[in-house]
Amino acid sequence: GAGVSQTPSNKVTEKGKYVELRCDPISGHTALYWYRQSLGQGPEFLIYFQGTGAADDSGLPNDRFFAVRPEGSVSTLKIQRTERGDSAVYLCASSLAGAGADTQYFGPGTRLTVL
Amino acid sequence: EDQVTQSPEALRLQEGESSSLNCSYTVSGLRGLFWYRQDPGKGPEFLFTLYSAGEEKEKERLKATLTKKESFLHITAPKPEDSATYLCAVLFNYGQNFVFGPGTRLSVLP
Predict the structure, then answer these.
(1) Cα separation of B46 and A18, whole Å?
(2) pLDDT at res. B98
(3) B79-106 pLDDT per residue, tens
């Protein structure tokens, strides 16, 4: 596909469970970003990958959150021991070069609901 | 603390009624300011990037301008299809990540 894709589109889980959210960036984009968006708010930065490495993970709220991008393409955001406060839309974006040099293209998001 | 704010929080316009949205930032160094449009249930869609005070960008009925402390998104003769949430995001000199404002929800009534 031409755009950023995210799966699943919706995820409902119970408090304390583990979840994985997947992002497929635009082919050839080296930079990948994860954001979290709560209702009525703007996206909140979580982590930025340049290639396979996390160039900036300062937005991850705590050690229950972890993200990987092992081959420099697909990325997975992992949340352990989910809490109700983790409920939000998780957005992924990719750009050609990163560090603000290029336009970020966003995926449709994964809506996570923790019961 | 560097912050990005947007006003108004919500705006209702009649079709054809021009207006402006504001994005203000307190920042020690600005590398770029970005405007996005977000429709319900979708990810943000890129509109403009502005890098320096005095810069302007235009696209159809939208025009974005930048000063040292704020940016405006001017909407001329809006149509109902312009209804969306408009987000601005700032990239600061010291970081590699973007700080988004809370957005302005625009409704254009026919």
Answers:
(1) 32
(2) 84
(3) 999 999 999 999 877 666 788 999 999 9
Q: Kindly identify which residue of chain B lies nearest to residue A40, measuring between CA atoms.
A: B102
- Answer yes or no: do B41 and A108 touch at CB < 8 A: yes
Chain B residues closer than 8 Å to A41 by CB? 102-103
Q: Do A100 and B101 touch (CB under 8 A)?
A: no
- Buried b / exposed e over B43-57, threshold 16 CB at 10 Å, is bbebbbbbeeeeeee
The helix (H) or strand (E) run that includes residue A112 is strand A110-114
Per DSSP, what are the bridge partners of residue A10? A111
| A1: pLDDT strictly greater than 60 | no
- Indicate the burial class of A4 (C-beta count within 10 angstroms; 0-12, 13-18, 19 or more): buried
Q: Of B96, B99, B104, B105, which to mutate for an interface test with A (greatest number of A Cβ within 10 Å)?
A: B96
- Residue, of A114 and B26, whose pLDDT is higher: A114
User: Is the omega angle on the peptide bond into residue A8 within 30 degrees of 0, that is, cis?
Assistant: yes
Q: Tally DSSP H helices, then E strands, for chain A.
A: 0, 11
- Any bridge partners for residue A90, and if so which? A36, A110
Residue type, B87: L
